[in-house]
Amino acid sequence: MRLNSITLHRLAMPLVRPFETSFGRQTQRVVLLAQVRADSGAVGWGECVAGEGPLYSSEYVDGCEHVIRHYLAPALLAAPQLTAESVAPLLAFVVGHRMAKAALEVAVLDAELRASATSFGSYLGAVSDWVDCGVSVGISPDIDTLLEEVSGYVGEGYRRIKLKIKPGWDIDPVAAVRDLIGPDALLQVDANTAYTGADIAHLGKLDAFDLVLIEQPFAEEDIATHVQLAATIATPVCLDESIVTADVALDAIERGATSVINIKPGRVGGYLEAVRIHDLCTELEVPVWCGGMLETGVGRAGNVALAALPGFTLPGDTSASRRYFAEDLVEEPFVLGTGAHTGQLPVPTGPGTGVTVRGDLVRDWALAAPIELRP
Ligand code: OSB
Ligand code: MG
To answer: What is the band of 87 on the pLDDT scale with cuts at 50, 70, 90?
Structure first.
């Protein structure tokens, strides 16, 4: 295909409750969406997972918008023949900016798959119709509030609980939640880089709670301290922020820094690199799970399809739309199944991502006029 236009939409979506992590607290999701139009008339949508500020990673909405406008979009709009597989090579001249690149790659892939009536799941290699869902639980004002929130999610059927932790909010909340959900329930923690090597002995106390894993306690660039921790504690160490390419994933695994990997397509530059990490981990028998970035239904749809690949043996942060949004941006909000499918989401089967963006909400929630980029 050739692209006729790339349109950027910036929206603000209210969250059903504030979401707090070791790097900040948010009450709304500011989201950048890329809409591509091909010469064939096919339209595709991509969600950029960058946050409003550069707090989880160096990328953020203003930066993504800028790099797309001035560097990435012009390169794609100039391409005489474009496929989803050619997006990353065409954009490789720009260093980093993987979330911005991923938003464009997924939009092109969506347009391409819609044109050939193929679903994301079948293109990526999904082997199941339903995926196991976990939920990421933010830092609470106090333990009673946390237990109330966790009880709600357990009642909804989630198959795994992930608690956000930080220094001063770790051992006690984890102990209280383990007590609440019982010894067999899957429980894990995510520190979003809030600790240092000086905390290794303290983090060892988490071994008492039989956690599935501890996610990214140290800085993104600090593989060495993760190696040290992994050699000291029984709880498996899982990297999130550090894993930006398949090569980094291989290096971190070989060095013993991580024995489980959180795959986020946006963080690694798109679904194609995400599949490469999945394939590599499957070969090395390293379990993977699909992370989340408070995606709207647009991004959630692709993640649910990815999580249906065979190596995704742990429940992902693929929660239902209502965990974050009273109203989702798509006509097919994600709703947890019932009966045998309690705690699971169905993998979309329609063409492309299989979801339909609600134009009314894109207009109602717009923070700025759309930006239309042409060749
Ligand atoms: O570290 O996984 C993370 C949200 C924003 C930024 C980073 C992370 C998260 C989450 C929530 O944990 C995942 C989700 O439910 O989408
Ligand atoms: Mg994480």
So the answer is: very high
Catalytic residue among 162, 166, 205, 264: 264
Q: Which CATH number fits the domain that encloses residue 12?
A: 3.30.390.10
Whether residue 205 lies in the annotated active site = no
pLDDT tens profile 303-321: 999 999 999 999 999 999 9
Residues 163 and 113 in one domain: no
121-159: pLDDT as tens digits: 999 999 999 999 999 999 999 999 999 999 999 999 999
Query: The tokens of 178 are what?
Result: 């383990």
**Phi and psi at residue 254, to the nearest 5°:** -60, -30
Query: How far is the centre of ligand 1, averaged over its atoms, from the C-alpha of 164 (Å)?
Result: 9
Domain that holds residue 200: 121-346
User: pLDDT tens, 92-112?
Assistant: 999 999 999 999 999 999 999
189 and 301 co-located in one domain = yes
Which residue type is seen at 53?
Answer: G
pLDDT digits (tens, 9 = 90+) for 230-271: 999 999 999 999 999 999 999 999 999 999 999 999 999 999
The residue whose CA has the least distance to atom 8 of ligand 1 is 293
Known catalytic membership, residue 166? no
If DSSP states are collapsed to H, E and C, what string results for 266-316? CCCCCHHHHHHHHHHHHHCCCCEEECCCCCCHHHHHHHHHHCCCCCECCCE
- Is 351 inside any structural domain? no
| CB of 161 closer than 8 Å to CB of 150 | yes
Q: How many domains does the chain have?
A: 2
Residue 2 CA, ligand 1 centroid: distance in Å: 34
Whole-angstrom Cα distance, residue 229 to residue 264?
23
Residues by chain with Cβ below 5 Å of ion ligand 2? 190, 215, 240
Is the same domain home to 69 and 178? no
Question: Ligand 1 site: residues with CB under 6 angstroms?
Answer: 56, 136, 190, 192, 240, 291-294, 317, 319
What pLDDT score does 97 carry? 98
Does the model's pTM come out above 0.90?
A: yes
Averaged confidence pLDDT in the chain: 98
Q: What Å distances lie between residue 173 and 77, 142, 180, 233, 337, CA to CA?
A: 50, 9, 10, 19, 29
Pick from 354, 356, 357: nearest CA to 126: 354
Q: Quick check: 310 and 290 in contact, CB under 8 A?
A: no
Q: Based on the domain organization, do 235 and 293 belong to the same domain? A: yes
